[in-house]
Amino acid sequence: MCGIHAVISVNGTASPDLGGALKQSLQNRGPDHLGQACRTLQATAAGNTESQALHLTFTSTVLALRGDHIAQQPLLGPSADGSVLCWNGEAWRFDGQPVSGNDGEALCSRLSQPHPDTPRQDHVLGIFRSIQGPFAVVYYDDIDRRVYYGRDRLGRRSLLVHRADDGSAISFSSVAGQPVTGWTEVPADGLYSLNLDACTGTLVDYTRLVERHMWLDEEPEMNMVSNVGLFNATAEKPDGNDCQLQAQEEGSIVDDLESQLMSSLKLRVVDVPEPPRAHAAADRDVRVAILFSGGLDCTVLARLAHELVPTSQGLDLINVAFENPRLVAQYLKQPEEARKMDFYETCPDRITARKAFAELKQSCPGRSWRLITVNIPFEETMAHKPTVVSLIHPHDTEMDLSIAIALYFAARGTGHAYTASHVWQPSMPLTTTPARVLLSGLGADELFGGYARHDIAYKRAGYEGLVEELRLDVGRIGQRNLGRDDRAMSHWGKEVRFPFLDEELVRFAIGLPVWAKCDFGIAEHETGIEPAKRILRLLADRKGLPIAAREKKRAVSS
Ligand SMILES: NC(=O)CC[C@H](N)C(=O)O
């Protein structure tokens, strides 16, 4: 992940010191390069004779993951144009067409292309709207003297904003800097822009200066969800509630899901470059790792990634378990023969992860898989807590912290590596995954109906209830705290990618009738596969993962 930072200041120097701690945080996110660009301009509001000097400073750190070189940032427009682009993102497609080479450079060159028939602002907005993929961006458009900033429509990358109390400066940053408090998250509900010519006097009246540009350039239709696609709200099953889909029809929906997931994964796992300073210590070529609870979603991702990643590369599966003093006390009360392994091996996710690891190894021979078991003693959690607290700011609840701590240690990727055997062994040496791309199965539960409350909604109000519950869930993905998760994980110079949140895949999933995804009306399916996320389970079954396909979901709700 990259780190981006920008300051617009009315009285600051052109190049304020970033501060050691913030600079370090940004460099943790983007270890491959750090660059800065400054601009000073005279802002003159219409009808106003007085002008105001504005100092703009842009900083980017780069985690280079696209193309065959490190695309240094901030990216600059052609020489006559003083535009500056700070890009923390992966533009997978422009207007539906895959992007080859470095996406940041491709974006920058699009922004600076001539466009004689389109007003400047429409040109810029059109380009940002055409991007499919996660991003946080700050773009200074020198032609129109505007600063654009925002996050993609699903909010997959972090961007915070801070306004100085005296109106002297506005700052943007991937992570909170100095001062440590007072930052707010930029909402992912559109792209924002600031007309610098209106910024005379102070920046106190910031809300008046900012414009929000919607992701869609027309009024959204009623069933539009997350500005991505139309939700299929059909609640009447053509053949009646108790009728199972015809095997042939079901088979072709599973085919479609497979091809959608494969195209999403192809963008995310193929052509991941080797780290620029090739890990001298790394004894194996691993560029992609999977955040691995052993559940259905991440196991399917691992299985399909195997079909795309060259077999010369390994794939790491990262599973985290925490020492919980209360549970450890209970564990120690058990008779000795019940305590053959260590405490971490009793955690439910560890048990499923080992099972799924064994199944993957069997179904994908020829791949070098590693299960990395990450065990975190209580003192270690406590020692890292202040770092995680500051990374997740402005999120600050206990719930935020416990989720973020798990993601933080998973992303660090340091644990015991199991290759040949999936059975626990004592005193294994520690290793760290060299992979800089991490895959997460997030989104599958919302898209395909994996939570217990989806079943409850069906029992309460049939397909109509289920439709409403799923529609709400998908609509909330964009507010699902992905910014917080990004801040916690990127700390280790890693980038998390969400194959289930690919715009095309989301559009496909929400376009299916609910019974094609999770038919709670058919409790007994002929395959013995349960209703929650049935379509994904059927895919797992087809791919040689019968155990993962039938694994029961543990989480009660979200
Ligand atoms: N990780 C990032 O956000 C870097 C930006 C860009 N995709 C690159 O690889 O250069």
UniProtKB/TrEMBL annotation:
Annotated source species: Microdochium trichocladiopsis
InterPro entries with a match to the protein in the record: Asn_synthase, Asn_synthetase_domain, GATase_2_dom, Ntn_hydrolases_N, Rossmann-like_a/b/a_fold
CDD domains named among the record's database cross-references: Asn_synthase_B_C, Gn_AT_II_novel
GO MF annotation list: asparagine synthase (glutamine-hydrolyzing) activity
Name this protein carries in UniProt: Asparagine synthase
PROSITE patterns given in the database record: GATASE_TYPE_2
Keyword terms, alphabetized: Amino-acid biosynthesis, Asparagine biosynthesis, Glutamine amidotransferase
Record PANTHER family: ASPARAGINE SYNTHETASE DOMAIN-CONTAINING PROTEIN 1 (PTHR45937)
Residue stretches making up the Glutamine amidotransferase type-2 domain: 2-197
Biological-process GO terms, alphabetical: asparagine biosynthetic process
